[in-house]
Amino acid sequence: MTYDVLRNSSGVVSGESDLWCTYAAVRTLTWLGRIGDLPTPGTVGGFLASRQNSDGGYAWSAGMTSDAWATYYCTQAMADLPEGSRGTVGKPSSAWVWSAAHEDGGFAMMPGQASDVWATYYAVRTLVEICDERPPEALFDWLAALQAKDGGLAWSPAHAKDGASDVRACYYAITAWSTATGGQGPLPWDRERLTNWLKDRQGAAGGFTFQEGDGTDCLWATFRATSALRRLDEAPRDPERCVAWIRGRLRPGGSFTRWPGYPVPDVWAAFCGVGALRELGAGLEDLADRVVEAVLSFRTGQGGFTYRTPGLASDVLTTSAHLLAGHFSDTGERDALRWMESCVLPNEQGVMYMPGRGSEVRCTLWALSAGAFRDDDTARAGIADWLAGSIQNPDGGFGYWEGRASDMVSTSAAAEILHWTGGSSAASLRGIAEYVAACETAPGQYANVPGGRPTLRAALQALRALHRTVGADGARVGDALARHRVRGGGYANEGNRVPDLLSSYEAAVAADTFGLEWDAGHLTTFLDSVRTADGGFAWTPLMATSGGPLADCLGRRLELRLSPGQHGLPPLALS
Amino acid sequence: MHTVDRTEISIRVLALLEKRFGDAARSLAPDADLSDALPGFDSLVALEYVTAVEGEFGFEVDFVGDDVRYWFSTLARTTEYVRERVEDQAA
To answer: What protein family is recorded (chain A) (predicted)?
Structure first.
């Protein structure tokens, strides 16, 4: 695959700051000793603080549920900012982190979910580095169980039994151990087998890959591998070639790019390039000025950062939303689809939210729904292989990305994708049904994760996932819709009083999927209550302004469903 | 509620906002848009606001039929909405 289409952009730009990019930018400047170059650090602090929820945790986007990933990124980036621009952080975040601790010694991304090494790493760093607290003693037994037969470390103890080692899992586990012990405690793994596995991921050119069998070295894997080795007082087999490979990713006059052939410098490449050279003890003086200049050019008007020059920083969800809402001309549509189809990593075949980020299940469903890979059987088969062959969790469910614990949103999205791509095995379908069963709280009622609170959307997503796998009873869907039908119009996720666009969309999709009749007038009344003055749609009747491109897309698709043409609703999952 | 007095309703609604927003609510103009005037007044806070008004005055809001985004967008509109609902209840 070539990535020239990414050099410019024919996707849609949201113009918004992104938490992941803001964290990477702030850390890169800090590592270069250049955080003082940030023109208005207070605006960055304001953006980060806006992600905090009343439970003390932080969320990827304002209004979403808190998770360990966002909580670490926000609090760490705030700690890096100059004094006076940091906002407030402390005990409330600590209490939230402890609420996601699991009795097995690991941490979950959000309370109720299973432990995974991503979440455990984020939680341990937040507790120790930000809150000055100690993680639980049981952590070390949990970390010890991550070592797979090949010597590498896996996403969870269950993944380790399946032998799925990954450089990122090694980095997260080793850093969690190092953070918790100051690097002084007994190592919970067989050291020689672990370091050999890590060193074996270095290719002949000098860069690293994530997993055995991956074909393309990448800067992300190279940073994680060199960092993990340094925490073990080790180095790559060929450090000089590694440094040369990293420096080979620099664009003339610009910053770092991700892998050979990738044309665009971006914020995560700058983070990984600077981080890896720092871990290897290589000099940064000659490149610091141009990296700082590039990173600062990624600032947005909102106060944070996006992944590249804001005017070209398209993302897959926004682009899909515009396509699904019919906002493109024919030519623009073809270009936008081609742009989304290039948002695939060399070693992971799903679609990314932003180029160079890990492939994500929800984004892949949105891109496919919008028409990506419609006529590309090879790509569709690759997506099916990636889902069922690489990222399905041992509990049968799916998380947002590889290694993240399962949730119903991702599992339902995966079931839809597997149905469309036709690549599902009986075992993967059975696994989905097993995960869905684990989320059932009462007959016909489901939560997003096992042991969670039942909601309408989780129930409908569960029943649609069963419909795509082992079959489901439409009467259960009818019962769920009746329980959450709001008298005045629309459907509520919890109870039956406050309707919202996402739940009402999910209700219509589920009713259509199971062939249930529904009341068009009831839905029309609800849509009227969320339509905004500018022709967009709010997430709830409580807000007067549009919820952004994703809300506008769902509202527009419901309008089309209600139109005389009765256009079908794509089975989009969001939260 | 024994009377339909706008001033009393306004004071009680403002007290609910002060509980959540402190000083920012104390200087609130009756016609100020709450989402502009009060920091963090997003859809979740708006929901809490409506729920608090329901609890204070003892009625249920119809989230679709009552055009909540209009009636709960300013202190003055909320006061008027509450007054009409209380009158309806008394009738």
So the answer is: Belongs to the protein prenyltransferase subunit beta family.
